[in-house]
Each structure stands twice: as C-alpha cells, then as structure tokens.
Amino acid sequence: LYHAFTQWDVGAESTWIGLANFRQMAVDPVFRQSCWNLLRLGLFVFAVSMIVPFAVAEMIFHLRSERLRYACRVAVVLPMIVPGVVTYLLWVYIYSDAGIVTEFLHAVGLEKYVHGWLSDPKTALWAIALVGFPFAAGVNVLLYYAGLANIPKDVLEAGELDGLGPAGRIVHLHVPLVLTQVRLLVILTVIGVVNGFESVLILSVDGGPGYETMVPGLYMFLNGFTYQRMGYACAIGLLMLVFLLAFTLGVNRLFRTED
Fold first, then answer.
1. Vertex 36: Cα angle to 32 and 40 (nearest 5)
2. What does each C-alpha distance from 79 to 51, 57, 73, 139 come to in angstroms?
3. What angle do CA 22, 24, 25 make, to 5 degrees?
4. 209 by DSSP, 3-state: which?
5. Which residues of 50-88 are buried (b: 16+ CB within 10 A; e: fewer)?
6. How distant, in Å, are the alpha carbons of 16, 148, 172, 173 from that of 162?
7. pTM across the whole model
C-alpha cells in the first residue's frame, strides 16, 4: 500500500512520489492494452466458468443412480490433483508444431489451417482462453451440485405438481435456489480472472506476441521482478485490489437475500 505511492527500484531506497505512478498508468499504452485483453479474456472465461459447470452439475443431479452420481463427482475432482503448472505445460505442447491440434489438422487434410497458435497475434489470446477446455472445473461443479442437492424435495415435488417440465424446474426453481452458490462463484471467478496470469506467463512468457496477451497481473509481475520497478508494480496491484474489493461488495449487495 505504501510503496504504490513511491518510486522504488529493487535494491534502492524508495522515494515518495504521490500519485505519479497512477498518472503514469493512465497514459501507459501497455497497461491500457492489458486491461483491454483482460476484458475480452475475462468475459469469455467468466461465461464458460459459470455456465458449463452448472450444466454439468445439472446432468449429475438428474442421474437416477446415487453410485453413478458419486462416481461423476469423483471424476470431476480428479483433475484437481494435477498441479496447474503441469496443465499449462501440457497446453503448450498441445499448441506446439508437434502438438495434438497440428497433428489433427494434418490427419484430416486441413494443413492450410496449421499455424503458430501462440505466436499469431490473431489467435494467441483465444488460444490461452481455451486452456482448460471443456471448463468443467471441479470446485465450480461441486458447489453447484451442493446447492442443487440442498433444495428441499417438497419444493421440487410442488414444481412437478404445478406442471413444470425439466426446463421449467431449472429456470424457476434451480437457478433461484442456488443464488448463494452463484454469488460465491461470481466473486471467486472474477478474482481468479483479474489476479491470474500463470497461464499467460507459461504460454506466452512475456505477454506476446507484442502485447496481445498481456494482462494486468502479468504486467505487475514483470514490472516488479523483470523491469525492477517495484513501486509501479505495487501501484498496479493496489488498483487491482481496489477494483476487486469494490466488485465483491457490489456483488454481495446485489445478491443479498433475507437470510
């Protein structure tokens, strides 16, 4: 918090400069590009992280066999034991010249579509966005499933008696009754999107090509530990903190219930 208002180079004394770091941020083209990249990347990741796990949780919830439901819950949790770094390195290989994507295109006779997925400015950001496909994240699925499992059976039976079909039960009963889980996942997902930069760091190293995959978290990291501009990095981190705090308070107020 303090060093966000200082000029602090690693190994040197910090000097108080007030709001100079934030004024520089306002005209920094790289920072503005990183925010634009984050907006595009974040909207996609947020949508798939909220919708796909809910669909998977619904499918598990509607299975008739309790043993099969348990097996499915175990299946969606198993990938969590793999370290995130390993997952990102696997995707680096998938996108490589000898990776699955390239080999598949060769196998089906679509060689003309083969190119550097992570080196092409037009595809680099979306290649990173697709990391984690099919997006059935274990924690998200389990949180949704827990919310669905806690819906009283008499409420579901009343919906059936009122003539609600499968789609009607999901829209009019399931979604309103899992808003607590939705609120939690909205907050966790946005925090993860804004703060996360591990995938970009591993797949692109420096936010390239150019600055097409640069995001604020990575720009903060590079300023602090590569460019040795720790004061500017602290200012970026403080701005991210203020945004996430305001967002969290806003979501809590928006989703506030009588409880």
1. 165
2. 19, 16, 11, 11
3. 60
4. coil
5. bebbbebbbebbeeeeeeebeebbeebeeeeeeeeeeeb
6. 67, 19, 12, 12
7. 0.84
Which residue is it, tokens 């990095």? Answer: 233
| Residues pairing with 16 in the sheet | 6
Alpha-carbon dihedral of residues 194, 197, 203, 205, nearest 10 degrees? Answer: 130
Q: How far apart are CA 147 and CA 82, in angstroms?
A: 26
Q: Which amino acid is at 172?
A: H
Name the residue with tokens 């370290």.
Answer: 83
**How would you write the pLDDT of the chain (259 residues) with one tens digit per residue?**
999 999 888 777 888 988 999 999 999 999 999 999 999 998 998 899 888 988 888 888 888 888 888 888 888 888 888 888 888 899 888 888 778 888 888 888 887 788 888 888 888 888 898 888 888 777 888 888 888 888 788 777 787 777 777 777 777 778 888 888 888 888 888 998 898 888 889 988 888 888 899 999 999 999 999 888 999 999 999 999 999 999 999 888 887 766 5
Structure tokens at 179: 């808003």
Burial 246-256 (b: 16+ CB within 10 A, else e): eebeebeeeee
Question: How many other β-carbons are positioned within 10 Å of the β-carbon of residue 105?
Answer: 15
| Sequence-separated (6 or more) residues with CB below 8 Å from residue 156 | 169, 173
Q: Which amino acid is at 4?
A: A
Return the closest-CA partner of residue 214 out of 224, 199, 227, 228: 199
